[in-house]
Amino acid sequence: MTSAEVYLKLENLQKTGSFKPRGAYYAMWKKFKEGVRWFVAASSGNHAQGVAYAAKLLGAKATIVMPKYAPITKVVATQGYGAEVILHGETFDDAYEKALQLVEEGAYFVHPFNDYDVIAGQGTIGLEIIEDLPNVDVVVVPVGGGGLISGISIAVKSRNPHVKVIGVQPKGAPAAYLSYKEGKLVKVERINTIADGVAIKRPGDKTLAIMRELVDDIVLVDDFEIARAVFLLLERGKLVAEPAGALAVAAILSGKVDVKGKRVVAVVSGGNVDMSLLATIIRRGLFLEGRNVRIRGLLPDRPGQLKRVVDVIAEFGFNIVTIEHVRSNPLVHPGMAEVELEIEVPNREAALRMLDKLKERGIMFKLLHPGEWLEARGVH
Amino acid sequence: MTSAEVYLKLENLQKTGSFKPRGAYYAMWKKFKEGVRWFVAASSGNHAQGVAYAAKLLGAKATIVMPKYAPITKVVATQGYGAEVILHGETFDDAYEKALQLVEEGAYFVHPFNDYDVIAGQGTIGLEIIEDLPNVDVVVVPVGGGGLISGISIAVKSRNPHVKVIGVQPKGAPAAYLSYKEGKLVKVERINTIADGVAIKRPGDKTLAIMRELVDDIVLVDDFEIARAVFLLLERGKLVAEPAGALAVAAILSGKVDVKGKRVVAVVSGGNVDMSLLATIIRRGLFLEGRNVRIRGLLPDRPGQLKRVVDVIAEFGFNIVTIEHVRSNPLVHPGMAEVELEIEVPNREAALRMLDKLKERGIMFKLLHPGEWLEARGVH
Question: What single string gives the DSSP state of each residue in A254-310?
Answer without folding.
Answer: TT-S--TTSEEEEEE-B----HHHHHHHHHHHHHHTTSEEEEEEEEESSTTHHHHHH
